[in-house]
Specification:
30% strand, 70 residues, alpha+beta, 2 helices, 4-stranded antiparallel β-sheet
């Protein structure tokens, strides 16, 4: 399954982060990492269901991947 980085949008409450984690786990995802400097987490989540995460108005969803400088 692909990995996705989930971060809270500006103005969203910490409760929204907890709800996003619960929603991801309830839909078959597995939390792989929780960020400490920003409000967010990385989740392994079924690609065919990612649109269910993207409908949450309080979070950003971005597929995890390698970053290259050249």
């Amino acid at each position: 399954m692909p990995m996705y980085n989930i971060t809270l949008k500006d103005g969203a409450s910490p409760d929204q982060l907890s709800k996003a984690k619960d929603d991801a786990k309830n839909q078959g995802g597995e939390i792989k990492h929780e960020f400490t400097l920003i409000k967010g987490f990385t989740v392994e989540f079924p690609a065919d269901r990612v649109t269910t995460l993207e409908t949450n108005e309080h979070i950003h969803v971005e597929q995890d991947g390698q970053v290259k400088t050249q």
